Amino acid sequence: MVKTKGGRDMNPADAHRKEQRRKEVSRNKTERKFMREAASKRSKPDEIKEQLQILLDMEEDGPLPKNLQLKKKALQEALQASVRKGKEDETQQKQLEAGLAPKQ
Predict the structure, then answer these.
(1) End-to-end CA distance of the chain, in Å?
(2) CA-based Rg of the chain, rounded to a whole angstrom?
(3) Rounded to two decimals, what is the model's pTM?
């Protein structure tokens, strides 16, 4: 039996579930960190491309660790969002130049 902080015995199944939950929370925390970093760089697609290229080069050498896979995923999503935003801005600019009202 596994002991808790209070010295009480804990069911092994409960201990296993608690450990799995702790790992999941840690994983989610790391993923959120990478998403926040990538979101802050959405206005700078050149930086995103550089970092993504570095990760892709590392991936060619061998499989990436889990945390770098998450970072790569976050950077890819940020790059797609940045490109999408750039296209939307470009179409709005063309509409304004043509004298049309922007869509909302």
Answers:
(1) 61
(2) 22
(3) 0.60
